[in-house]
Structures are given as structure tokens and as C-alpha cells.
Amino acid sequence: MLYRVALLAGGDSPEREVALRGGAAVERALKARGHEVVRFDPPRDLPRLAERAAEFDAAFLVLHGPGGEDGTIQGFLDSLGLPYQGAGVLGSALAIHKGLSRLLYREAGLSVPPGGLFSRKERERIPSFCEELGYPVVVKPATQGSSLGLSVVKSPEDLSSALERALALDREVVVEKFLRGRELTVAVLGEEALPVVEIIPQGAEYFDYHTKYTPGAAREICPAEIPEEVARRAQEAALRAHQALRLRHYSRTDLLLVEGEIYLLETNTIPGMTETSLLPLAARAAGLSFEDLVERLLEMALEG
Questions:
Q1: I need a surface site. Which of 35, 121, 159, 214 has the fewest CB within 10 A?
Q2: Residue 191 region, left (φ>0) first, then alpha (ψ -120 to 50), else beta?
Q3: Do 190 and 265 lie in a common domain?
Q4: Do residue 170 and residue 183 come from a single domain?
Q5: Residue from 188, 185, 189 nearest 297 by CA
Q6: Are residues 26 and 45 located together in one domain of the fold?
Q7: Would residue 103 count as lying in a domain?
Q8: What is the pLDDT of residue 207?
Q9: For position 139, what pLDDT does the model report?
């Protein structure tokens, strides 16, 4: 069956360019399957979408970060009665906040790196917290994605500049113990975990923004070359995280494997859809082409 789809891509978060690239790929896939697509670039085009909402069967979101993954646009679409793929308002708001996600992961019996959440007003408490935690530590904004504003701080002298970077993007920061391990990610599609992906940055200490979106800057191995029992535990952890955050349709959770233990880092509610993105890679390993994946997500949106 063919549908008329409002494709929302771009936005005004720091991840705009990535969202535009993903939006272009999704548009090609939808059109290849015969669907009619009209592009909208929030927030500029939202009044136009509100006027034309009745023309569409569903919306397809390729937006990242605040304004796209925080529940804002999901609430807007709910008010229009336009179905969309991915998490609703509550799940989006919970998942984008790394401090709240940590609490829900732990409530679900999942491990997270030792750490804490601090507001801008609590900044003076952070140096002593880091001393207790032990360097190196990770400092990151509470509600940004793609490692934007994230720093690995190896000594107290570097802490102030790392906090400035993170607080320039958010009013709250998460400070965690830096754990060195193998970087894994697991996507959930429906209620099923896809094959585990291992990410090996090439020349970078961790999977930062540049490494994420530059072809060849990281090796991405799927299925990950890890014991079957470890892969199963990683998939179970991603599925439990998906459920703990009240998500639906799909998600992708980043994990660390450290001396046999799996630590949860964060869950993405609208995973990247560019040519180097990890969800399409895992879907391919599970037998789904990029077009198949987009079609499946559109079906989920229509099913509610």
C-alpha cells in the first residue's frame, strides 16, 4: 500500500547537518517504494505542516537532539493527530536526559558507570566529586547527542574547560568515571534486539562526533566479534533499557564491555539514518535492506 508521508528532517539542534543527511537517505528510500513524500524542516515549517496535516497518512522523523528527540515535536504531532515512528512524548523526554536515564537503567537492574548529575548551580561541587570518583572522568551535557560537548578529563587542570563546553550546551551535566572497554551498540526493532555492533575508533580515544559521521574514521563490525553469551547479554540489556525508558518501535543503546561486565551509556530514540549510521548496519546484518528498514518503521508509525 502506498502512503503520503510528511518527512520532518533538519531541525535547529547542533545535529542538524546529520539529520539532513539522514533525511535525504530516508526520502530516497520512501520514494523508491512508491510513497509520496513532502519535506518539512522544523521549527520553520511547523505552521505549514499544521495547515496541511490532514493531507498525510503519517510523519517520518529524522531529527536529533533537543527539539527532535525530547518529546517536543512528538507532542506537536500528537496534537495534530498525525502518527509517527519512534518514542512518544514520555519516552523521548526520559531517554534524552542522560541523568534520568541512568536512574531508570539502575532501577531495571542494569549497570552504569559510577557518576552523577549536576545543575549549573551545583558546579562548585563537581571538582570534589571528581576527586572522589578518580580521574579520568567523562563530562557531558545531560541532553545532547552524538557526543557533542563531551570531554574526557584526565586531570583537575582540564576540568574547568570541559565544564564550560558542556554547560554551553545544557543547564545540567553528567559526570561519570571514564571506563576503558570495548564500545558496543545494540538496536531494538519492534521488541527484538538486532545483532550487536562493535565500534573501533581509528586514531581517536573514543567514538566522538567526528568519528561518528566521517566515513572510515571508525571500524564498525557487525555482528561484533564477541562470545555469543556476551552478545546475548548485550542484546538483553538494550531491550531492558528500551522497556525501562517506555520506548516503542525502535531505539539504539550504546554500551561498554569492561572485563566481562556491560555498562549502559545512553539510548537514542531516533537513531542516525546516514550512510555510516549504525542502525542500518545492524538491520542489514539481520537481513533488512535500508529500504526494508524505512518501510518497517513507516508501518510501525501507522500501527501506532
A1: 121
A2: alpha
A3: yes
A4: no
A5: 189
A6: yes
A7: no
A8: 64
A9: 96
Catalytic positions, written as ranges: 15, 146, 277
- Cell (9 digits) for 130: 571528581
**Model pLDDT, residue 202:** 78
**Cell triple for 22:** 539522514
Q: Residues within the annotated binding site?
A: 254, 266, 268
Is 171 in the same domain as 235? no
Phi, psi of 293 (to 5 degrees): -60, -45
3-state secondary structure of 152: strand
Nearest to 284 by CA among 292, 295, 276, 272: 292
Q: Which three cell numbers stand for residue 237?
A: 540489556
User: Taking Cα atoms as reference points, which of 297, 254, 303, 304 lies closest to residue 22?
Assistant: 297
Q: What is the pLDDT of residue 275?
A: 67
Check whether residue 163 and residue 190 sit in a common domain.
Answer: no
Domain count, the chain: 3
Q: What is the per-residue pLDDT for 148?
A: 84
- Tell me the CATH number at 128: 3.30.1490.20
Residue numbers of the domain that contains 223:
179-269
Within 106-181, strands assigned E span: 115-119, 137-141, 151-153, 172-177
pLDDT given at position 204: 67
- Are 202 and 243 members of one domain? yes
> Could you say which of 59, 93, 127 is where a domain stops?
93
Per-block mean pLDDT, blocks of 10 residues, the chain (304 long)? 97 91 97 98 97 98 94 98 98 97 98 97 97 96 84 96 95 96 97 95 69 74 97 98 98 97 97 88 96 98 94
DSSP string, 179-195: ---EEEEEEEETTEEPP
Give the predicted TM-score (pTM) of the model: 0.93
